[in-house]
Fold:
Amino acid sequence: MNDKFKQLLSNNNMSHEKLADLFGISRPTAAKIVNGDKEMTISELRKLSEALGISIDEILGEQPAREVVLEKSPERVSRPNERISVPAENVEKFKNVLLYITKKIGALPNVGQTVLYKILYFCDFDYYEKYEEQLIGARYIRNHFGPTPVEFGAIVKEMVYDGQIEVVKTKFFDKEQTKYIPVVEPDLAVLTGRELGHIDEEIDRLGGKTATELSDFSHKDVPWIVTAEGKEILYETVFYRTEDTSVRYYDDKL
Structure:
C-alpha cells in the first residue's frame, strides 16, 4: 500500500492493532498489509470499507477511468406500473435482499447487473435445494448468459422511484456495466436468521467472481441446462443437480 493508504488509516484512527482485530489476523500480518508487503483479500477490503464507511476504490487510492451516469428517479412522472407476477411479500423480500447484497458488495468493481443476476439466482435455487423452501421465490428464465430474474427490471424501477436504490452506468475494463447503489438500509426483519446466513454464504462464495466466471458456472447447473432458451427455469430441477453445482449433502444410503 502507498502513503495515501497509511494516511487514510491514520485519519480514521485505525492502528495496526485495530486493523488486526478487524481482519482477525495477527498484528505483524496487519503491519505487512500497511507496509505493502501483503495484499488485502476481497473479504478484508469489504470489512475495511464497511468499517470506514468509504468505497473500496477510495481505500485502494484509485479513481477508475470510467464515465459514471447516475439514473435518478424522475420527479414528475407517475409511479411505474409494470406488472410484477409474484406475490407482494416476495417483492418486498426481493427488494431487501437486493439492498442487502448491494450494500455488502455493490461497490466491488466486478459487481454489475450480470453478477447480481447470478447471485440472486444461486441464492434462490441453492436455498431451495438445501431446505426445500422458497427464499425470494423470484422467477428466472434461461438466456445465453445464464439465468435472468424476470421481474428484476420492474422491481428496480419501483425502487429507483421510491428512492431506495440508484443505477450507475460504468465500464469494467472495456465492457459497459450497470451498477446498483443502495440508498436506504435493507429491512432485515423480512428475513430469517437462516436466510441471512445463507445469503452471506452465497456472497462469500460468489461475490468475488466476474460476470464471465459466474455465467460459465451457471452453465454447469442442471436447472439451466435442461431448460429451453427463453423459458422459465423450474425450481424442482435443483434436485437433479450434479456435484459441480449441488450444495446439499445427499445420503446415498437412503
The longest strand covers residues 165-172. The mean pLDDT is 84.
